[in-house]
Input
Amino acid sequence: MNSPMKLMTGKMKIAAIAVFCCVVAFLAAGGTLAWARGYDGRIGPRTFIGSIDVSGMDPELARQAVQTHVDALYASGASVILDGKPARVPLSTLIGSDGTEVVQFDLDETVHAALAANHDANGFWNAIRLLEAVIRPTVVRVTVSGSERSIADAVRDAFPDREQRAKNASFAFSLSGGTWTATVVPGTSGDEFDIAAFRVALLERLAILSEEPVPLPIAPRSPEVTDAVAAAETKVALAAISRAPFTLQLSSGPDAATKRSWTIPAAELAALILPGQNGLTVDPDLFEERIRPIVEAVEVPAQNARFERKDGRIVEFAVSAVGRALNEQKAFDDLVTALNATNRQGSDEGPSATIELALVEVEPLVKTSEADNLGITDALGTGTSSFKGSPRNRIANIRNGVNLLNGLLIAPDATFSLLEALRPFEL
Output
């Protein structure tokens, strides 16, 4: 008689336990989802940007925390090991009154990655990913970049006497009795910084905001252009000089009706020509000096649109205009091509020694057509200062500065320089 009752009682206990477990699971799930919602708009738990704990921070607070560390790195420079001794390489330089960053940290992209690391659009999976973060910490690497050229300049400025750079073989030209002759100046070996390897290691350290010293390797280096290579190019170089002067000609753009030209005489060409690994080339620094006056003569900077605020609306008072710039790389490449087009037997017979210059359009950062999409609704701030009693020259300077700055817009992600905006300065 008791057996059926005991069996029923046992089933009821199991059912009660099952109900209790379901209630607990439901409450736990609800609590977990509520806990997960507490991270909406905030970075997940146990999340690090490099070595900085940004758990639970909103993006702005996380950015400030990382920015503080980055500023400290800029101030102190990168720790390196050179010849077994500790040293530092600056990560920012000051040229005149302008600061230049050797490496660039993209903190907006980094913080966005940290925010997205443990979140999901689906509420359930969002909670799961956040729970996983509690168990397994997340480390987000900082997005950092730096060109090999800028890092090399910083290293060589920091240690100007340590490196003895290898020198390629070159030419020495002379003119006697109307005839050009050439001899080969031998190349020399040296000890050079391995900038490529250092750059990779440096960016790797900075990506995790590590201050651990980075090895700065230096190794023996042989010339890339040997004496034999230079000797093989001597006849071609002399033939190129015999075709001088070379002409740089501009026949495109607004002034196409009146062609403009500049000549490179033989003596100047002799200073420019270098032997290269694949034929003649041109000294890039001397070429830059030669073409700079041409650049200044033909280039026109792009004009950004300027606006003023009337009746709560932004209205235009200066139309944007497309600028023009000289394609310097094309000019360089075309000159090198013209030099190497000389008869390989050393004859002075060759193609035309005229290099056609090309202009490229430079779009303004702020265009008239984009004014309504800039999202400008209110003035961020105003400043008022009395210059009553100031001398005439100060009053004139203030008015001139106001005219230059009034209505000026700063494009998204652009850096504003007051000095650049007020140039040129005259005494």
In short: The CA atoms of residues 305 and 368 lie 5 Å apart.
